[in-house]
Amino acid sequence: MAKTTIDSKYIQQHLANERTYLAWIRTALAMIGIGFLIVNIHFSTNSTSMISDQIAELIGIFSVILGLIIIVFATISYLIKKKQINEQTFQPSNRVVWMVSIFTFFIIVLFFLYFLVY
């Protein structure tokens, strides 16, 4: 017979925590993909604008950095929530959501500037 663990008391919560973690990882990969996509599309065309070149590079750099930051924060958040679920001290955190929202807004502004200049 299998031994009952603390984790097994809260199976649904742990599974939800894992799904949330995987959703953050998908978001991070999408951000990184957007960065590579815009840079590849931009530099495969004949661009004569130095400003649009710089904006495309900024979008690529910030998208990759944001993706990596999301992975780090998602992993930390997952581990903290796992511990909080077992201790029944769960407190939702807004830091990751605010950070991703602010950086995503910044990337969207860069996209707007890019298409305005290009």
UniProtKB/TrEMBL annotation:
Any single GO CC term annotated in Swiss-Prot or TrEMBL for this entry: plasma membrane
InterPro entries: DUF202 (IPR003807), IM_YidH-like (IPR052053)
Domain of life: Bacteria
UniProt key word Iron: no
UniProt domain DUF202: residue ranges: 13-82
Topology of the protein relative to the lipid bilayer: Multi-pass membrane protein
UniProtKB keywords: Cell membrane, Membrane, Transmembrane, Transmembrane helix
Subcellular location, principal: membrane
Subcellular location(s) of the protein: Cell membrane
Pfam families in the cross-refs: DUF202
TM segment ranges: 21-43, 55-80, 96-117
UniProt-recorded name of the protein: Putative membrane protein
